[in-house]
Amino acid sequence: MPDAPLPSEQRRTIVGESLAVGVATGAYGISFGAVGVAAGLSVLQTCALSLLVFTGASQFALVGVVAAGGAPISGAMAAILLGTRNTLYGLRMAPLLAFHGWRRAAAAHVLLDESTAMAVNRETRPAARLGFLTTGIAVFVLWNLATLGGALAGTTIGDPRTYGLDAAVGAAFLALLWPRLSDRRSRVVAVVAAGVALGLVPLTAAGVPVLAAGGVALLAGVLSRPKATA
Amino acid sequence: MWAAILVAAVGCYALKWAGLSLPARMLARPVVARVADLIPVALLAALVAVQVWSAGTSLTVDARTAGLAFAVAALLLRAPFLVVVVGAAATAALLRLLI
User: Fold this and answer.
1) Which of A32, A180, B31, B63 sits at a 20 to 30 Å CA gap from B90?
2) Residue B79 lies in a domain
3) How confident is the model at residue A228 (pLDDT cuts 50, 70, 90)?
């Protein structure tokens, strides 16, 4: 990985792209804030999730379980299971970023779908670091401001279903899932996992169906044969 | 609730930090790589299904299904994330307004 400093033009491009992603993702934090409050969390709790957990799908999973009447701790488990994908991003990013000590500890907090996506294809280490940090920090600032705004608005707008916010959450999960459905095994696992989860909804406490779907992934991964192209 | 928030925060941070700190050869084990690849797929699919078709402990089809249908169409047309999400919400809201 070359370490040469960035030409200023390339620097501007990377910063511009990263900020655009930050704004788009951050704006979506408004709906997290509103959904969090609608699920019965206080404004402070909703904001704490965005500040401390800071990984969107996990946060939505937690409040989704709570909104459905599940125990908060099973929501936390669903959040952590979903958070495992950040470990994969980290394994991918570690050699590119080559952060150590406190820099690594700080970078870990902004290790996200977006910051990984904006850094993984850069050709030099300074470019990867710039893309990663600009995106990560932009998303962090805007996501948290938007969460606060959404949570405050959520306490005043009444029933969030009037605005279709409950449908927005399902759509957001689908949008995150979509790029992962490129091979047949993933599509099969997705359909089976959805089926298992729905089958368990009438039988178990809220939160359990989603966790059980994690078991489907485990089984499929252990049992299926290695891909020829893997 | 606060305990759950702290558990999720510590757990999610530890997973991020571990990714930046573990040796990359962890992923070289094919079973680990496959399971790690499939967990987000299974969880997100389950979350979509539960979010759209459950109400408490019963299954139901309502305006959220129309929202999801919009999302599928938008994703097929490669619409940006925000369009998918806001459009789905608007579709469901509109349907509820009309019925």
Assistant:
1) A180
2) yes
3) very low
**CA end-to-end span of chain A, whole Å?**
24
Number of domains present in the structure of chain B: 1
Helix A101-109 with B2-21: angle, nearest 10 deg = 130
- Chosen for mutation from A25, A66, A91 (greatest number of chain B CBs closer than 10 Å) is A91
A128-173 pLDDT, tens digit per residue, is: 999 999 999 999 999 999 999 999 998 887 777 888 888 888 898 8
Distance from CA of A9 to the nearest CA of B (A): 26
- Report yes or no: B66 and B89 within 8 Å, Cβ to Cβ: no
**Position of tokens 């050709």?**
A123
Residue for token digits 């789905």? B88
Spatial separation of the C-alpha atoms in residues A184 and A20, rounded to whole Å: 33
pLDDT, tens digit, 9 for 90 and up, residues A170-197? 898 898 899 889 999 999 999 999 999 9
